[in-house]
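Before the break, one more example. Copy the sequence into your notebook; we will annotate it together after we see the structure.
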Amino acid sequence: MVWKPTLITNELIRKTLNEANMDENCAGVITWMHTFSPAKSWILGLQEYRKPLLHLHTQFNQEIPYDTIDMDFMNENQSAHGGREFGHIFTRMGIERKVVAGHWSDSRVQEKIASWMRTAVGVVESSHVRVMRVADNMRNVAVTEGDKVEAQIEIGFERFLEEKDYQAIVTHFGDLGSLKQLPGLAIQRLMEDYTYNLVPGKEGVLQVHMLEVCPSIADGPISIKEQPLSMGDREDPARLVFTAKEGPAVATSLIDLGDRFRLIINSVNCKKTEKPMPKLPVATAFWTPEPDLATGAEAWILCGGAHHTAFSYDLTAEQMGDWADMMGIEAVFIDKDTTIRGLKNELRWNELSYRR
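Here is what the structure looks like once it is written out:
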């Protein structure tokens, strides 16, 4: 975090925000209205600003100085006043921002700021990431749509990625050219919903994939096994075999609705399966979605969530929502507070909002 002097003029505000725009190492700006600040002074700078912004609504003193407070103190410490003025102009201009309220020394406030900073870095990184996609969507599956790329499959992947400045690569087994095996170990990608456990009190979703599960979620040993695969028309592939860690996590799905994108964010609780699965040579994760399996699954389907799931123990639902807000993407949360009636209304309201 880099400190900047207090901004007191229209010109200085505009100059500083545009410096942030042009600085490749700047992922966003954090503002604090220490005292009253006429918000109209910010209009031009905010109109030109293009990166994430966090409004920290705080003040230096934690407690009112009852014995010494006077008009000089009031004039110089008006965070409550200035912060509301600043917030109003953002709302009036329809500009997305993150608001964190509380005393700056509070660990909860510091954690929220740190979380937002991490998300802001992700937004800036994702704005220039280049992904090489080998072949088109797999066997007309709806959730794997995407653009083709100008690469031949027999070119060496690593050299090609470096030469063309790609940061990621995805494939599918419908069009692999001269590759003899499915590239499961090299192309770690997504989880999939495969089957449920519907026994009362033991409900959960078994998430697996034949090849593409990242080993960073593993708990315990990771094996590499070569096992027959009845699809793909290739030699038996090598694959990673492990079970996922226990604990809270988020499962997300980014879908294309034609006129906009929607990010579905489901808080889940990962746990161990009741029994081992020795005949299933794949990576597995078993979780119960919040608020419960029946509501969570119904909500996911109503939102249009795909059967492919991006999954993380390290990111939070709030971070994913912040990312969606920064990117101008609709975000829908499925968590402990979700009800089907409320979710249906939210989707209806969102549909009207995004038609504007």
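Confidence is low (pLDDT under 50) at residues 146-153. The first strand starts at residue 29 and ends at 31. Try to locate both features in your own notes.
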